[in-house]
User: What shape does this take?
Amino acid sequence: MLNKLFLISFYTFKEIFKSKVLLITLFIGIALMVITYVATEFTYGTPEKVALDFGLGMLSFSSLGISLFLGATLLPNEINSRTVYTVISRPVPRWVFILGKVLGLSAILFINVFILSVMTLACSSLLGGEINAMTILAIVFNCLESILLLLVVVFLSLFLNTTLSTVVSLFILILGHAIKETQTTTFVKERVYLNTLLEFYHMVLPGFYKLNLKDFVIYKQTLDGTYLLSSFAYGTCYSLFLLFMIIFIFNKKNLD
Amino acid sequence: MKVDGTYKKKGGNENQEISVAKLRLNHNDFIMLKFKEITKTFKTDLTAQAFKALDQVSFEIPEGSMVGFLGANGAGKTTSIKIIMDFIRADTGSMEFSPKLGSTRSEIFKKIGFLPERPYFYPNLTGREFLYFLGGLSELRKSEIEQNMTKWAPRFKIDHALNRPLKTYSKGMLQRIGFLSTILHDPEFVILDEPISGLDPIGRKELKDVIVEIHRAGKTVFFSSHIVSDIEEICDRVIFLQNGKLVYDGGVQALLDSHEKKDYLVKIMGHDFTPATKHHSLVKLAGNTTTFLIHRNEKDELLKEILEKKADLIGLELIKPTLEEIFYHIRSN
Assistant: This one.
């Protein structure tokens, strides 16, 4: 079964890779180098911080973009073009198919993150910045955030069409980042019902802000190990739960 | 799940099951697939009334047979095939596969070759990568895939294009590589959904020849089509669906025989001969020939008369309706 899982992941990766989606990564990498060069001319004293800020931002933007747009079409394209039939008409359980597709797309995400991380860290180092554990952790958490978003959009694509699943996932991503700050505003604090609603949202839908360490890296703030560990566990458990739900629903789904 | 030595697959509905049982049709025919009282309804949205795509449909596919699955568009052919392949679940009814295929889903599907209708495949993979992918999923070794590819690719005239991405393939080439992937693992039971539609006459002939070849090699072939002449040409059995209901399930020849009109067309040179028989009618006068329609019982009498009058007989043909005519007749009734 592992062999079939590998085959589906490998050929999913190959199919997406050949679609030249990673050209986006290349363009962003070139833009990163150009902006870093420009930054050295116009920033006073902190060009390495600008390079790191821009690099991590682009890293997050590109990997979330890949998750959102490729994740939304991952299953609907298979069903619409009937390619799913050619695969699951073989001795392949449905869970192997769906897991293989998700792993194949995750491999594309990892490559995107790897290339942009290396370029970001190289640019920052060349300008005198230092690479510390927090920077590496920020990149790892970014990977986790992208995978969580990928699973959210794949989950929604089981019920909604491609456009709706993209829009709703984007909405969940924005809310997932803004919810913590929103809860601290006086406007929300003064309204009990709104606070309760946000608390409920917080319990059910993913809190993406927990996986965003970029500001801590840029402004050299410290975070205690417990926060990091709990955030990592939160992201991992939420992703595993979504993966389980996707497999469960896909096993029951009528593929017509 | 295993239940009393029978593999049962329960889907969205508790009444559906895929089980393996040794069944006998007639004489020594084993059944490859038994489709029992399957009903399937679809609902386009919550407020819409449910549409019955299949209504208590039952049929059997004998082992080693070549069965054509006929019906107009929307008759329920693809829905039936999707249920057989476990892509969708029936509301009620059950299915049984031959024990020859195996006792688990994995074993059964390893011996089934399926080609969907109008396949698109992965556009950026090359033909060779695509075949390696599907061959691997069918548990073939690399050497076996290579060997079967070498055997079949020239037959399908796609050997020159195996290293090209599938997005550069024409519709006919996609259909051919799809068919190659279907038989790559040498399946016992081949299920084809409209395999010949969209092909040019030469492509259709070549594909039909391969279908006949794999059938002669002992494989069971079940293929849907709305082109009646293709089914009549190569199938020994036919299943006909109309509006989700089974209209006919049986031998092609038996159906043709049952609708034989038992009349003869007699063609005579010249316009002077008039038969003395009671039940005849003039069909046409064309050029220097006369054509009569005559009842079977009066054939011998007419031939005798032709000999006696020394008329020049140039043709005698039993009128046989085509399968297409029979199905038009069934549909119109």
In short: The first helix of chain A runs from residue 2 to 18. The CA atoms of residues 46 and 206 of chain A lie 34 Å apart. Chain A touches chain B through 25 residues (CB under 8 Å).
